[in-house]
Design brief:
The two termini are 27 Å apart. By secondary structure, the protein is mostly helical. It has helices at 2-20, 29-38, 47-58, 64-78, 82-95, 100-112, 116-129, 134-146, 150-163, 168-181. It has one domain: Serine Threonine Protein Phosphatase 5, Tetratricopeptide repeat. The protein is built from ten helices and no strands. 39% of the residues are buried.
């Protein structure tokens, strides 16, 4: 129960930071804020390009060695080598503990390894550093849904959707969980 209170508190902090407009580093804040604002446009046919650019910004740590570790960790993930991915990404989070995308990549590796507890802990770190990380929020929703924590999953998905309303997978998850929680048969 304490873990789910922590998740709720992380989601609440993410929401409050969204309202306050915080969460970006100085180096990327103006352009990143502009891109995140563009995601709010209702008829954004190029949302995937905007999303890609946001991820490019989030993937810049400011350190060549940290960027290299992120690249190696992602390559290992793509190859299905979870042990190597976790080695690289743990080295990254040790080397650059304030780099949210390092925690997000490691959360993905832990998720793929079926280790939801540590994956959720890493997502909480991501959201503390970058409360607008819709990818981390979506991943959190997915894990919570698979764990049967449907209310918390819906909260995570809805927070992600408030940041990125164009992703069909997020909209589908919100609709699915709303129907489930209202008692409709899926």
């Amino acid at each position: 129960m304490k873990a789910f209170r922590n998740i709720h508190n992380s989601l609440l902090a993410a929401g409050l930071a969204l309202l306050a407009g915080t969460g970006s580093t100085v180096a990327q804040s103006d352009r990143l804020d502009e891109l995140l604002e563009r995601l709010q446009l209702p008829d954004l046919g190029t949302w995937q390009l905007v999303e890609d650019e946001i991820y490019q910004y989030w993937s810049l740590s400011g350190s060549a060695s940290a960027d290299f570790l992120l690249m190696r960790g992602r390559e290992a993930l793509e190859q299905g080598d979870l042990a190597a991915a976790l080695d690289h990404l743990t080295a990254l989070t040790d080397h650059a503990p304030d780099f949210a995308e390092g925690w997000n990549a490691r959360a993905t590796a832990y998720f793929r390894a079926g280790r939801y507890g540590v994956a959720i802990s890493d997502v909480q770190r991501v959201l503390a550093l970058n409360p607008r990380h819709f990818g981390a929020l979506t991943g959190l929703g997915l894990m919570l849904e698979e764990m049967g924590e449907f209310d918390a999953a819906l909260e995570a998905y809805e927070t992600a959707q408030s940041i990125h309303p164009h992703r069909p997978d997020i909209s589908q998850a919100v609709d699915r969980l709303n129907r489930m929680l209202e008692g409709e048969t899926l």
